[in-house]
Amino acid sequence: MAEELIIHSGEKSEIYKDLIPQIKALLDGEKNLMANLSNCSAALHQAFKFWWVGFYLVEGDELVLGPFQGPIACTRITKGKGVCGTSWGENRTVVVPDVDQFPGHIACSSASRSEIVVPIRKNDVVVAVLDVDSEHLDHFDETDATYLEELCAWLGNKF
To answer: How many domains does the chain have?
Structure first.
């Protein structure tokens, strides 16, 4: 596949339906995890213009910053801390409509207003999380959760 995305405007679900097969085709056959996560974060950022999109990888008892698109970010997050650490610790997708209302939110950027974090599992163990931030309140919903969970389930096979 050429390194070019074809994204049609429209409903969020339609954009995901266009995008996810293209991400899978782009990553198919590439074995380097960092290259794959880099292209995945770039594709999501390009398609949706998210404020920040990237990955944190489990290393021991911390999440460590991986490939991302957007402003600089927190480098290490402990299990159970912030939205990412909560998603990892509870092994579930966490959607936060207003980060200022999330107890223990880690403010890497004051511009971030809402967030979704989706765990990536390999053999039922969380190995990373996908973290997406928006500068708008209440940006993420069940549509985002459904499609990002599908993508993350597929990405788990790349680890």
So the answer is: 1
